[in-house]
Amino acid sequence: MSTQHPRNQILLKHDLDLISRGNEPLAGVDEAGRGPLAGPVLTAAVIVKDAAFTVRIDDSKKLTEKNRVKAFDEIQKQCVVSVTMRSPEVIDTLNIRQATLESMEEAVRLLGEAPKLVIVDGPMPLRTRCPIKPIIKGDSISLAIACASIVCKVTRDRIMAAYHKKYPEYGFDRHKGYGTKTHMDALKKYGPCPIHRKSFAPVASAGRLN
User: Fold this and answer.
1) Fewer Cβ in 10 A, N or C end of the chain?
2) Partners of 118 in the beta sheet?
3) Looking at the domain assignment, is residue 89 inside a domain?
């Protein structure tokens, strides 16, 4: 594994240290969309095969939308990637934490290779056939987790942009389902739509008003 972008060297060093201890393939796992009031939660598992990225790889929240998309395209070409999601209905049935865990576990299972070690962003107690290593703020520490965070974010943003065409009154293309003032105002005016998470308090309150 080698890399070209300076920031990536820091993240790669972390992963290479784990790989040097016999943990290859190494898979990074992250999620996008736990906090929004609408839309699915996305999870991804990524095994980096070629770390020579020409763009910066980092926590997706630290990248511009343009740079996230560039990174996403390179990740798709240079990594083994698995993306899974859970719908608002599943989130309402299980709760957001359990839905996220279930989706992460599925993402690992669906990877084209069986990892020797799975590193996951945050304290997520995954149940997989291989060892798990939770890393707090892992998307700013590990190259594989950062790649997973980018894949989740870009994929989910595209899903929410598509939902905007179906439910334009809510502005999903702008806030992606998060509880911004614009979103809350629309929720109060129109009530929840089918992709809102009915178990989330602001959505439940808006539903009672409409």
Assistant:
1) C
2) 27, 132
3) yes
State percent of the chain over pLDDT 90. 90
Q: What is the CATH number of the domain that holds 125?
A: 3.30.420.10
**Could you tell me if residue 181 is inside a domain?**
no
Confidence (pLDDT) at 128:
87
Flag whether 203 is in a domain: no
Give the residue from 112, 97, 116, 113 showing the smallest Cα distance to 43: 97
Cα–Cα distance, 90 to 203 (Å, whole number):
16
Tell me the CA end-to-end span of the chain in Å, nearest whole number.
Answer: 55
The pLDDT score that the predictor gives to residue 95 is: 98
Residue 134 in any domain: the answer is yes
Q: Which residue has the tokens 């598992």?
A: 45
Is the pLDDT score of 108 beyond 90? yes
Q: Would you say 83 and 44 are in contact if contact means Cβ atoms under 8 Å apart? A: yes
The pLDDT of 75-87, averaged and rounded, is 98
Question: Which residues face 132 on adjacent strands?
Answer: 118
